[in-house]
Amino acid sequence: MDEHPPRLVYDDDCGFCGWGADYAAARGEFELVGFSELSPDQLARLPPDYEECVHLLTDREVYSCGAAVEEIGRRLDSPERYGALVFETVPGSGRLREPLYRFVADRRAVLGRVRRR
Fold first, then answer.
1. What is the mean pLDDT of residues 72-101?
2. Where are the alpha helices (DSSP H) in 15-92?
Protein backbone atom coordinates (compact mmCIF):
# COMPACT_ATOMS: atom_id res chain seq x y z
CA MET A 1 0.00 0.00 0.00
CA ASP A 2 1.19 3.51 -0.81
CA GLU A 3 2.23 5.81 1.99
CA HIS A 4 0.81 8.89 0.24
CA PRO A 5 -2.43 9.43 -1.63
CA PRO A 6 -1.93 9.41 -5.40
CA ARG A 7 -1.11 12.82 -6.83
CA LEU A 8 -3.26 13.82 -9.79
CA VAL A 9 -1.09 16.20 -11.83
CA TYR A 10 -3.02 18.40 -14.25
CA ASP A 11 -2.88 21.63 -16.25
CA ASP A 12 -4.15 24.20 -13.78
CA ASP A 13 -4.49 26.79 -16.56
CA CYS A 14 -7.12 24.65 -18.29
CA GLY A 15 -10.70 24.99 -17.07
CA PHE A 16 -11.76 21.58 -18.39
CA CYS A 17 -8.70 19.97 -16.79
CA GLY A 18 -9.43 21.64 -13.45
CA TRP A 19 -13.05 20.50 -13.62
CA GLY A 20 -11.90 16.92 -14.31
CA ALA A 21 -9.41 17.02 -11.43
CA ASP A 22 -12.04 18.40 -9.04
CA TYR A 23 -14.51 15.75 -10.22
CA ALA A 24 -12.00 12.97 -9.48
CA ALA A 25 -11.05 14.43 -6.10
CA ALA A 26 -14.73 14.60 -5.08
CA ARG A 27 -15.11 10.89 -5.88
CA GLY A 28 -11.79 9.44 -4.81
CA GLU A 29 -8.73 10.01 -2.69
CA PHE A 30 -6.38 12.17 -4.77
CA GLU A 31 -4.02 15.01 -3.97
CA LEU A 32 -4.44 17.59 -6.73
CA VAL A 33 -1.23 19.15 -8.03
CA GLY A 34 -1.37 21.72 -10.81
CA PHE A 35 1.53 22.07 -13.21
CA SER A 36 2.36 25.42 -11.57
CA GLU A 37 2.63 23.75 -8.13
CA LEU A 38 4.94 20.83 -8.98
CA SER A 39 7.77 20.22 -6.56
CA PRO A 40 11.23 19.46 -7.99
CA ASP A 41 10.84 15.81 -6.90
CA GLN A 42 7.45 15.47 -8.62
CA LEU A 43 8.74 17.19 -11.75
CA ALA A 44 11.71 14.80 -11.89
CA ARG A 45 9.31 11.83 -12.03
CA LEU A 46 7.36 13.17 -15.00
CA PRO A 47 8.24 12.73 -18.68
CA PRO A 48 9.92 15.69 -20.43
CA ASP A 49 6.71 16.53 -22.30
CA TYR A 50 4.61 16.39 -19.13
CA GLU A 51 2.56 19.44 -20.10
CA GLU A 52 0.91 17.46 -22.90
CA CYS A 53 -1.41 15.50 -20.62
CA VAL A 54 -2.61 14.50 -17.15
CA HIS A 55 -0.54 12.27 -14.85
CA LEU A 56 -1.10 10.18 -11.76
CA LEU A 57 1.86 9.77 -9.41
CA THR A 58 1.76 7.02 -6.84
CA ASP A 59 4.60 6.10 -4.52
CA ARG A 60 5.69 3.41 -7.00
CA GLU A 61 4.32 4.31 -10.44
CA VAL A 62 3.80 7.17 -12.88
CA TYR A 63 0.76 6.97 -15.17
CA SER A 64 0.47 9.45 -18.02
CA CYS A 65 -2.20 10.52 -20.51
CA GLY A 66 -4.75 7.78 -21.23
CA ALA A 67 -3.12 5.40 -18.76
CA ALA A 68 -3.54 8.07 -16.05
CA VAL A 69 -7.23 8.56 -16.85
CA GLU A 70 -7.79 4.81 -16.79
CA GLU A 71 -6.00 4.44 -13.44
CA ILE A 72 -7.83 7.43 -11.98
CA GLY A 73 -11.10 5.82 -13.09
CA ARG A 74 -10.19 2.57 -11.36
CA ARG A 75 -9.59 4.46 -8.12
CA LEU A 76 -12.88 6.37 -8.01
CA ASP A 77 -15.28 5.56 -5.18
CA SER A 78 -18.31 5.96 -7.43
CA PRO A 79 -20.14 4.10 -10.20
CA GLU A 80 -17.88 5.70 -12.83
CA ARG A 81 -15.23 3.29 -11.60
CA TYR A 82 -17.01 0.45 -13.36
CA GLY A 83 -16.64 2.18 -16.71
CA ALA A 84 -12.85 2.06 -16.36
CA LEU A 85 -12.97 -1.57 -15.24
CA VAL A 86 -15.17 -2.55 -18.18
CA PHE A 87 -13.08 -0.56 -20.67
CA GLU A 88 -9.95 -2.54 -19.86
CA THR A 89 -11.77 -5.79 -20.72
CA VAL A 90 -12.75 -4.59 -24.21
CA PRO A 91 -10.62 -6.25 -26.88
CA GLY A 92 -8.23 -3.68 -28.31
CA SER A 93 -8.75 -1.19 -25.48
CA GLY A 94 -4.99 -0.85 -25.06
CA ARG A 95 -4.70 0.39 -28.65
CA LEU A 96 -7.72 2.70 -28.29
CA ARG A 97 -6.84 4.30 -24.96
CA GLU A 98 -4.29 6.88 -26.12
CA PRO A 99 -6.11 7.94 -29.32
CA LEU A 100 -9.32 8.37 -27.27
CA TYR A 101 -7.43 10.41 -24.70
CA ARG A 102 -5.89 12.60 -27.40
CA PHE A 103 -9.29 13.08 -29.08
CA VAL A 104 -10.74 14.50 -25.85
CA ALA A 105 -7.59 16.44 -24.89
CA ASP A 106 -7.43 18.13 -28.28
CA ARG A 107 -11.02 19.35 -27.78
CA ARG A 108 -10.80 20.45 -24.16
CA ALA A 109 -11.51 24.10 -24.95
CA VAL A 110 -14.80 23.15 -26.63
CA LEU A 111 -15.67 20.58 -23.95
CA GLY A 112 -14.99 23.17 -21.27
CA ARG A 113 -17.58 25.48 -22.82
CA VAL A 114 -20.16 22.67 -23.08
CA ARG A 115 -19.60 21.65 -19.46
CA ARG A 116 -20.35 25.17 -18.17
CA ARG A 117 -23.89 25.21 -19.57
1. 93
2. 15-27, 40-45, 66-74, 80-87
